[in-house]
Amino acid sequence: MVQVGANDHTIHYGNLDPGPYCVKHGWRALLIEPVPTLFANLYNQYKAHAEQHDRTRLLNAAVCGRSCVAENRTFWSVDTSNATGNWGSNRSDARCAKAAGAGWVSEIASLNQWHLFAMARNLQYSQSKCDKCGRRLGKPMPPDCLSRVIPDNMVTHSVMCTCLDAELRDEKSVTLLMIDTEGYGEHRRTRNRT
User: Fold this and answer.
1) Do 98 and 162 have their domain in common?
2) pLDDT digit string, tens, across residues 154-193
3) I need a labelling partner for 178 at 20 to 30 A (CA). Which of 128, 138, 157, 165 fits?
4) Which residues, other chains included, contact 46 with Cβ-Cβ below 8 Å and sequence gap of 6+?
5) 99 lies in which domain range?
6) 7 vs 152, which has greater pLDDT?
7) Pairing between β-strand 109-110 and β-strand 29-32 as defined by DSSP bridges
């Protein structure tokens, strides 16, 4: 099994990701995750029990194309840990996303910054959601409390690029290939149409 964009292999938002089940049942697995915090969680989950997961290879990288040139690229993600210093703000406090049922913003990441801006349009907010956040934070929140969560909490990382051809050179076959490369697929489709 190969999973590009493996996240941290915990269950999120009812997502029935088959990756963790395959690893649990002994499949040989290559798990690729570029976001440092997600990769750290993935690493701690599997390498802490290396003897149980000796058939699992983890790679902190992004699949960047066909060139197979080892290079570092800028990678964008949304930080919800207050690294940006926005906790306590009225429109950028990332804790409001989780309180409003939009914890998925912590998983948005791409080689394309504009993909994150586009995802901000999907973040629905209302007075009731902001009131819920306000109760959690112990202060009143405006009805647009989520309006700046994604753009104001974007961070960049330098990520190593790899290509699947190089990573799978010694493999005889791949039974299951899962790809979650937000924004990159859309960019390629648009470019191919012109």
Assistant:
1) no
2) 999 999 988 888 888 888 889 998 888 765 544 333 333 2
3) 157
4) 9, 23, 31, 53, 56, 58
5) 74-155
6) 152
7) unpaired
100 and 36 in a single domain? The answer is no
Whether the CA torsion 13, 87, 115, 113 is positive or negative: it is: negative
Place of tokens 């648009």: 190
Entry pTM: 0.81
> pLDDT tens digits for 122-156?
888 899 999 999 999 999 999 999 999 999 999 99
Written as one string, the DSSP assignment of 93-151 is -THHHHHTT-GGGGG-EES-HHHHHHHHTT----HHHHHHHHHHHTS---TTTTTTHHH
Examine the domain organization and report whether 174 and 138 are in the same domain.
Answer: no
